[in-house]
Amino acid sequence: xxxxxxxxxxxxxxxxxxxxxxxxxxxxxxxxxxxxxxxxxxxxxxxxxxxxxxxxxxxxxxxxxxxxxxxxxxxxxxx
Length: 79
Prior knowledge:
The protein has helices spanning 2-14, 18-32, 38-41, 45-58, 67-73. It is extended. It has five helices and no strands. It has 79 residues and is an all-alpha fold.
């Protein structure tokens, strides 16, 4: 871990890209403040139900749509 920490410090110290530094800061601070299960706890009951329903739909291959079919259906947006 010490090597990664040292390499990260070097990269940060040698960049002049403020946007990159902001992104790194956001990533690190969000990971530091992350609580296990916080995403699920933040969902409404309806959103939780939709997630659970979608999990059961994944196993139903008859509901799957091929990539080519999705491109065809959405061709108006892909132009």
